[in-house]
């Protein structure tokens, strides 16, 4: 089921998300719905807060990018109660977009390597390392779990330039090709 995406201005996007109990009602269906919602919006990642749920869950599928980056083929994963335990490597500058701030694409610095702890739906704990573009996408989605947007990571001068565009999104004065919530403020 395709769910509406929460846009900038909704307070849920600024919340620090809470851990999920593995007996969370409908968790398996929720994960599948998040993937379906992400695909419908042509994204490569989606956090639960982006569908209005302040819980520590995000999904990623980088397969659509495998035409230009073959190493990303088949990387489809969900992360429950994720925690970044290490960020390292050179800071790399790359343009990022976000389904919750449609139409805004900004160059963001991110570390090239992350180590994460997370659970699967059966409660198995993992500690994995990710690098390159994969590390970037994971950091972007993880930011949603702690109430951050990519635009929070741009220089102050750029933030000033983005105020009008962000205000338009907050006031729902944007057009998107996917369902969104009507709430703001």
Structural overview:
The structure is a single chain. This protein is α+β, with helices and mostly antiparallel strands. The protein has a single domain (11-170), classed as Peptide Deformylase (Alpha-Beta Complex). It is 23% helix and 27% strand. It has a five-stranded antiparallel beta sheet, with helices on both faces. Strand 4 (106-119) and strand 5 (125-131) form a beta hairpin. The two termini are 26 Å apart. The relative contact order is 0.21. The model has no long low-confidence stretch (mean pLDDT 94).
Characteristic terms for this protein:
185 residues, alpha+beta, Peptide Deformylase, 5-stranded antiparallel sheet
Secondary structure layout plus pairing:
Elements lengths: L26 H14 L4 E3 L9 E5 L14 E21 L9 E14 L5 E7 H14 L10 H15 L15
Antiparallel strand pairs: 1-2, 2-3, 3-4, 4-5
CATH level-four homologous superfamily name: Peptide deformylase
Class by helix and strand content?
A: alpha+beta
Low-confidence region ranges = none
| Number of continuous helical runs | 3
Overall 3D form: globular
The major beta sheet can be summarized as: 5 strands, antiparallel
What's the architecture, going by CATH?
A: Alpha-Beta Complex
| Percentage of residues in DSSP E strands | 25-35%
Q: Which sequence of strands runs across the widest sheet?
A: 1-2-3-4-5
Order of helices and strands: HEEEEEHH
User: How many domains would you count in the coordinates?
Assistant: 1
Rg, nearest Å: 16 Å
**What is the mean predicted local confidence, pLDDT?**
94
The helicity comes to 10-25%
């Amino acid at each position: 089921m395709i769910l509406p995406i929460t846009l900038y201005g909704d307070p849920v996007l600024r919340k620090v998300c809470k851990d999920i109990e593995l007996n969370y009602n409908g968790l398996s269906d929720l994960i599948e719905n998040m993937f379906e919602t992400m695909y419908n919006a042509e994204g490569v990642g989606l956090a639960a807060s982006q569908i209005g749920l302040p819980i520590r869950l995000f999904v990623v599928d980088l397969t659509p990018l495998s035409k230009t980056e073959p190493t990303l083929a088949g990387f489809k994963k969900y992360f429950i109660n994720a925690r970044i335990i290490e960020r390292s490597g050179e800071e790399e500058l790359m343009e990022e977009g976000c389904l919750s701030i449609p139409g805004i694409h900004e160059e963001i610095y991110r570390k090239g390597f992350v180590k994460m702890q997370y659970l699967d739906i059966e409660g198995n704990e993992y500690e994995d390392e990710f690098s390159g573009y994969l590390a970037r996408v994971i950091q972007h989605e993880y930011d949603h779990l702690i109430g951050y947007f990519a635009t929070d990571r741009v220089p102050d001068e750029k933030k000033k330039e983005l105020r009008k565009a962000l205000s338009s999104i907050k006031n729902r004065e944007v057009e998107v090709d996917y369902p969104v919530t009507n709430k703001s403020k």
